[in-house]
C-alpha cells in the first residue's frame, strides 16, 4: 500500500469533517495497523499468525490461569510478519504474541468465583519463534478451531470517543468528540468502506463499539470482533492494549483487556 497516496485523502476528509484547524490535528493522529482475517483462496498467511488452535510458547512456560482456572488461547500474532508495514510503530522485536482470555461461556462451577476484570483473567505471552512448542490445553480450557490469518495494511484514525480526540484543542468552544463523529477510522485498499463493522485488527487505532479504549500513550495489540467462532457479550468486541513504554520494554504484565458490547 502506498501511504503517500492515501494521506492526502485523509487530510482532506478530516478537514471536511472537523474544519481546517481540527482536521490538521486529527490527521496528525494517524497510525499504521492491519486488518486480520482468515485466509482464503490465494491469500498468504501472516507468518505463523492464527486465531484459535494451540499457543506457541517457549519450553517451560506455564499455561496461564486464574485461581486454578486455565485461560483459553484466542490468537497468536507473528509480529515479524507485521513489522515491515508498522515500521517505527513497532519499536521492538516481539516475536510471537500469544493472547489468552478467560472464556466467558464455559459451564464449569470453578468459574463462578472468578472476577473477569481481574488482570489475571487475560494474558499476553511473548515467545521467541525459534524456540517454541505447542503445548496441549488443559481439560478445562476451551480450544477454538485453528484459523490461519492474513494481515492487510491499513491507516487508522481514532474514533471520536478516544482520549486523544477529546484532548484536541479546536478553539471556538467546539467539542472535539462531537466534531469528530463523522470521521472514518480505517483507510486503505483492505479497510472496510464504512465504520459499521469492526472486524479483527492488530495495532493502529481500534474500531470503537461504544466508549474510548486507549489513552494517547497506549498501543492496540489486538482487537477481536464477535464472529461465527466466538461471542463477546452481546455481539461485542474484545480489545488488548498496552502502554507504549511497557511495549518497548516487553512488560506484558501491563496489558489491559476490555470487552465492549451492545
TrEMBL record:
Coiled coil: none annotated. Residues 41-62 are annotated as: Disordered. InterPro entries: DUF1963 (IPR015315), YwqG-like_sf (IPR035948). This is YwqG family protein. It comes from Nocardiopsis sediminis.
